[in-house]
Write a structure and sequence with these properties.
Oligomer: homotrimer
Shape of chain A: globular
Protein name (chains A, B, C): aspartate carbamoyltransferase
Largest sheet of chain A: 5 strands, parallel
Family (chains A, B, C): Belongs to the aspartate/ornithine carbamoyltransferase superfamily. ATCase family.
EC number (chains A, B, C): 2.1.3.2
Pathway (chains A, B, C): Pyrimidine metabolism; UMP biosynthesis via de novo pathway; (S)-dihydroorotate from bicarbonate: step 2/3
Radius of gyration of chain A: 21 Å
GO molecular function, one term (chains A, B, C): aspartate carbamoyltransferase activity
Number of helices of chain A: 13
Structural class of chain A: alpha/beta
Distance between the termini of chain A: 22 Å
Chain lengths: 396, 396, 396
């Protein structure tokens, strides 16, 4: 039940400008890890306690040299973390690995509340007066609009740029840290999309306001991971005992990798990997699942997997990963298509998911089936982001 | 008085993803047309009844297979449609042809109200809590700012992208329908600009929220058409009996084509076409006007036309239509200029209009004359869009 | 004490579309100048009285030919201008030269108030219902976000474009004046960034709503100048008697030029210029300072200057100014670096400032020192802009 393991796909970047903070964070990671090496199934679990980032708006005196993030690891009994009062704080959202089962449960509970927020109700105004900056170093309109909608659905305001590369362009040449220090002066929370793995972590280490990673290159996209798990619980009604078939590009897709990682936090999970040979799931995840006692198998038979699963999670084969080898791409992309035939063998309660955008790996006729959950999944992204914004700005 | 005719410049695109809806729409068009073939001047007229698009925010259960748009044609007596209670609904704004005289009258009445909305008054907050997505596949800053201003003047909020092409770019490759289904999850209404004729209609067929066409390539730009007609009524005080001179590029300009179409709904209208030979008004419009009993003539004498008209509607000769033939372009653009001389023969109550941007087809010295109505016309675009947003989101 | 002189780096552009207004403005400049040629230290000083731009939203009748700006020069006793009741009006913010000492004092007083505006307080809603258009002809994300944050921190709303060049692009080809007349119809205030010197002045001459210059090419960037002076007062506690070292690219940097100009309005100021030979401060500013009785000297010894100054104002050497001569650039940029050694000789109360972005002309280790004021300086830009928005939209 404990959520001990740390699965670092995104190595710490060095050097960063706030070494104290980073050192503290690194120490915490080591402590956290070692704690659970000692008692991996102890029935108690670790709880992270971050102090709230002090959102210092006064400027009436000089700022003291900053040492904002104090970390400590803390054993608690097997209570849901939400009961620990106001002490439990979400500080930044940087990577899937920062969430254990209890935090997920708590976030999902808030997410459910967000689904019930009605226009012009009191709860639709809880972030009134707050300002979110969407700092995008590359365009990702879908993700950006989802975050901005989330902020506005809660009464908050948005500063937006898809042109953040200008900060670090040849002519201007500013470091990410300097940009963050400027932008944090204008806003209460920063949602950042970057082309470099690890950029979100560097930003969070610098910022005195919360940072949400909206994707940093091949690194992490934690809100996508959260909405995927949330959608499974929402659609199927449970996470323990779930059977999920992950289909398509399992080598490069960060969504399926994060999903497999997060599902390992639940009991009695079974994962099927269905992919063309060239884009098979990598060994690090398989080894990790084995280590965590999660059952998994690889299969070349989508129909059989579909008939057994609660969730068929289809992904796009990304042409850009194949470079010149368009022959390999064409071979891979046509291999596992979710169509009417696949639907016909799926169970009545099962669903088809997809992180979108899709090309033709799910045929259009599937859309009309109630088991096509991918547009509802996209909508859940809105609710997850509303929940995170609330949690980061107002706390539990 | 009845508004029977359908003037389709924009053919139905096939295939679309919601065949039922489209079939229904097509059936309706046929019915509508045939109704009036039977009784073109019957004193009664057709009324379209769309059910409101169900803006389903609950997601608490599965969505039922959608069949959202039910259409029926309905004969009513010769009352203004605004008296039919709340049953008359504007669903989407896709093309000029969807408006008959009564709908125009009703929209203009709301538009007048919009002119009187004052800062921080109650009416300036009627769209509070609503979220508009401006989904622009090509930049059109003027149109976008006008819509966004309209939404904010009524207390609503905006999600904006001029980068929507990214959705359908080579790497991402999403269909318009998938994009719409994602964006409708984030917003309450979609304003779309697209480079392809018919795109707005496809979007509306897919979306469960209202769609406004902000221009789809060479196709339609219905809010421009509405603001043009509104401006004439606002400036001259009437539409029946109006004399309008359409000047400039009449072959390619969608604004003058739509304007001629809409003016045909009024009585005793006279239209003059003044254009260089290479960009003359096309036969389809002329035939249509003849069929509708609208008087029109072509003239090469701008001075004479200007002296007779209530409205001189000047347009820009578009260089991009001439390709390599810059000689033809130069010849065409210099031919009919509205300047002080033209003004001097115009009647005192008459006005000069222009859809903007202008180059030198109206000289700058004309601006100071009170009869120069083109900046007021642009401002009217704001009020028209406020009215449409109100109508689509709140109803009459 | 009087603020008589006019230091025009930005010549009047001709022709402009509102000749009357411009003529009036030019007359005023001459009067203003001549007044002070007569009595440069008279103890009384000139006050400018602009009528408020009439923000005509009615459109119920035709607009009268516009002659909106009436100017007159007015002698008053030596009272702070803020006491003159509501008659003193800030109309547009176009260039540093429009501010005299009293106006600066008054603006800084409002700026202090802005620092104290709290989330969801009444003062955070004073611009509710107002709409600001950020009309950027070139991207400047830092400046844009700062203005937009300022507007939203006061409850106002924003229309934004970094794509304003589209208005004047080859295909569309609209004049700046026409664009302004369109955009003023959508908004209550225009913040403009342009690539051409003098563009802001042209926009202000046309617009019936206030215009703020957010930088026009090599011309002016008055809000940067204001925030620089404000920061000095905020950090050091005074402006009279200040000792400032201006370091780096003094030939091309508009910030240091404007700063030197504005400091000349205070008494007993001493300015040190420290720069590589190729980018020395130009004679026009030096002559002006001499004329105004401001002490200045050039020095090649940064350490010595730093030890004497209250403010070390470092600037970036701009590579783009050197063209092919990267050798000269490399030589220039390495010459005067603010690092730990420089800090060690600075006085305890002194500060390091920088307009940002910085490259390596201030080393990163300086950031942790409380005397590093540049991020606070950036934050002050927010407060200055809040103050200007308040003043332009609501008055004193």
């Amino acid at each position: 039940m404990a959520s001990s393991s740390l699965f670092c796909t995104c190595p710490l970047q060095a050097p960063v400008s706030a070494p104290k903070t980073m050192k503290c964070y690194t120490d915490f990671l080591s402590n956290y890890l070692s704690l659970f090496k000692q008692s991996p199934n102890s029935g108690s679990h670790s709880r992270v306690l971050f102090n709230v980032k002090s959102i210092n708006r006064e400027q009436s005196g000089r700022l003291l040299p900053r040492n904002r993030v104090q970390c400590q690891a803390l054993d608690v009994d097997n209570k849901p973390s939400i009961l620990i009062g106001n002490k439990f704080q979400l500080d930044d959202v940087i990577e899937a690995q920062q969430f254990d089962r209890d935090i997920l449960t708590a976030i999902f509970e808030v997410t459910r509340e967000m689904e019930r927020v009605e226009k012009n109700s009191r709860s639709s105004q809880i972030l009134k007066g707050f300002l979110m900056a969407t700092l995008f170093y590359e365009p990702s309109t879908r993700t950006r609009l989802s975050f901005e909608s989330a902020m506005k659905r809660l009464g908050g305001e948005v500063l937006t740029t898809e042109n953040a590369r200008e900060f670090s362009s040849a002519a201007k040449g500013e470091t990410l840290e300097d940009t963050i220090r400027t932008v944090e002066g204008y806003s209460d929370i920063i949602v950042m999309r970057h082309f470099e793995s690890g950029a979100a972590r560097r930003a969070a280490a610098t910022a005195s306001v919360p940072v949400i990673n909206a994707g940093d290159g091949p690194g992490q996209h934690p809100t996508q991971a959260l909405l995927d798990v949330y959608t499974i619980e929402r659609e199927i009604g449970k996470l323990d005992g779930i059977k999920a078939g992950l289909v398509g590009d399992l080598a490069n897709g960060r969504t399926v990798r994060s999903l497999a990682y997060l599902l390992s936090k639940y009991q009695d999970v079974k994962i099927y990997f269905v992919s063309p040979e060239v884009v098979k799931m990598k060994d690090d995840i398989k080894d990790f699942l084995t280590l965590k006692g999660v059952k998994w198998e690889e299969s070349g038979d989508l129909m059989e997997v579909a008939s057994k699963c609660d969730v068929v999670y289809q992904t796009r084969i990304q042409r850009e990963r194949f470079g010149e080898r368009t022959d390999l791409y064409e071979e891979a992309r046509g291999k596992y298509i979710v169509d009417g035939a696949v639907l016909s063998v799926m169970q009545k309660h099962a669903v088809v998911m997809h992180p979108l955008p899709r090309l033709d790996e799910i045929t259009v006729d599937v859309d009309a089936d109630p088991r096509a959950a991918y547009f509802r999944q996209a909508k859940n992204g809105l609710y997850i982001r509303m929940a995170l914004l609330k949690l980061l700005l107002l706390g539990w």
